[in-house]
Protein 1
Amino acid sequence: MANASSSSDLPRHIAIVMDGNGRWARRRLLPRIAGHRQGVESLRRCIRGCAERGVQVLTVFAFSSENWNRPSDEVSGLMELMGKALVREVPELLRAGIRLHFVGERRALSEGMRRALSQAEADTAGNAGMVLNVCFNYGGRWDIAQAAARLAERGAPITESALASAMALAHVPDPDLLIRTGGEQRISNFLLWQCAYSELYFTDCLWPDFDDAALDEALAAFAGRERRFGRTSEQLARTAAAG
Ligand code: IPE
Ligand code: IPE
Ligand code: MG
């Protein structure tokens, strides 16, 4: 069915739960960290693919507030990988005009990591291309709570719009499309507030295997959705005919 409600079939903002790195590695009898390493490669390809297709905002879930519960060697491996990826990838992101934001609770991160995140943000702040939000030590419940705490601190009334403007992704519109790779059909405490009206797309494809063809499949599925935002199909058809 045609997407009658939208002027464009392309999502402005795509959010991704990049899941399945561990299973990708296990199938190859490799350590889990090898899957995470391949996951970084897949992310690099996906950033390029989204930018080439004209997506304005890409938000990825890289480390959840619950991922601290993993074995300590995997957690430290992921932290190390993040540090290395920053050093290696930021020059390329700069060249590609991408604006980088890190979203999540930074207090739990090491001093060095916090500095590296801020530096990468500052380095790319002047770019005018696609916005890339990397959710790192992020949880949707944390986000709602920190937004409410900020309002309470200012003595501001807690309204929907005030909360929305205090949330960690207030600098971008809400995601139009939420993709989760790896076969699980759950949100895992990702963007609980912001995905209120996102189209959900679940694929069995493991994140390291998520290539341009898989991205195009997700985009085709999105283009086939009718986004009604509470209205009826007939109302949408009338608006489209009038516009
Ligand atoms: C997602 O892949 C990456 C992170 C959570 C950091 P997983 O590591 O969860 O991969 P699976 O789900 O075990 O296959
Ligand atoms: C979600 O994946 C978090 C990230 C992709 C960073 P998980 O693999 O941690 O999710 P659960 O635990 O299976 O729900
Ligand atoms: Mg997983």
Protein 2
Amino acid sequence: MKILFLSSEVAPFAKTGGLGDVGAALPRALAARGHDVRVVMPCYRRVLEGNHRLRLLIPPMTLAVGPARLSFDTLEATLPGSDVPVYLVRCPRLYDRPNVYTQDGDEHLRFALLNWAGLRIAQQLGFAPDILHANDWQTGLAPLMAKTVFAWDRLFERTRSVLTIHNIGHQGTFPASAVHEVGLGITAESFHQEELARGRMSFMLTGLLYANAITTVSPTYAREIQTPEHGVGLDGYLRARRDVLFGILNGIDEDEWNPAKDRHLPHPFSADDPSGKAKNKEALLRELGLPQRPGVPLLGIVSRLAWQKGFDLCFEALPALFMQRDVQLVVLGSGEPKYEAFFGELARRLPNRVRFLNRFSEPLAHLIEAASDLFLMPSRYEPCGLNQMYSLVYGTPPIVHRTGGLADTVRRWNPMTGQGNGFVFDHFDARGLKWALGAAVDAYRQRRGWNRLRDNGMRSRFGWSERVVEYEDLYRKLCPPTA
Ligand code: ADP
Ligand code: GLC
């Protein structure tokens, strides 16, 4: 099938979180199944500054987008490990900025252009997609565009659209005037009228209304977002479309996240020979300047420091843990000031036990997953979560809140039966987290059980090759082969 895949993040070109991983791994997995996938993303400043091989594919075009005239040209790169083309929309006026996402007044325009450009590039190349696959609010306008302003073009006659929700907490909501500014004034009647009457428009809602199918990144999250508690105002619309709403668990990219051949690890290891794991821990502790304390568990955190991730529970649970137990902690992450301040302060107060690495570092993320004994991810909500899957296959049992994709991938360890792969608390409160931390540290002391627990995780099958067929089946249902 021919698939036009739009994403605001695609690793290694631009990544702020899991969308970047999925934006690369899913197209790669689809291509490996023989599909013709083309990926479109913005050419941010960091793409140009990265060491990527880029070539000019399409010379500048100018689009009238509402009152703005936007010029962009299209560069082409190849997704590493595949021959999937990545089309980079280069429009310095919108994308030559330090960050991928901004609070700037033209954020709606920045991503509206991605939608326009995706479809215009397909036209320029004569690429007739069977499937237009949009991801999150940033590409939520494309399904509507394909059905309205591009409908005259027979190229899109067969095109069916899919919108994948990676996070319903971000909806791309702007003042109603944005409908004109993004160049869709002529189809203003297609937007949700009550929303417009309330003075706003939303990219995500528009996508939910017009995509032929909606997916989200785990079965549990697919159910959760249909409830008022987790739907962030969109649950009613999702319930109305539940017959075309599917939860498909993310996979992990086994070329990137495989402890046996991870280029970021000084000591590769595997379920069959996990001995390298302890050496990675030694190496990390040395690098961090923390004392080597055999028998003392090292907890790891790698995360965006955002409200979603539930670190508020740590304010109470971690100081209590350090009072009661002998543990070490390493945190890699950046984000909201209150979490940065908390982990910074903890590291200052406990210089022999805690390190806070306040930055984004792909190599360190891999090393921490491999070197830690336990991985902490107390998310308030989690559409899928990749880090808990990485930690499982790296032999680092995760401690998680039972929500979204965490509920679908982590099963509570039962030392009696030897079943389970991690530590799960049911209620999002500090008591729950404290209980799970205590259970985890206790389990760590039971050597034999621990090895079994770790082995259960390391032998899990989370690869994309198992998941990609679910997308393929969905695409086929939407766009059956012509006779
Ligand atoms: P989310 O997409 O909500 O941030 P996921 O667990 O799906 O959560 O994906 C997070 C991704 O971002 C993982 O690949 C993780 O390793 C990476 N990541 C998060 N913070 C950092 C950081 N500070 N440095 C390096 N990688 C990070
Ligand atoms: C979002 C979610 C995360 C998910 C990722 C990739 O960032 O927060 O749970 O794993 O997207 O789908």
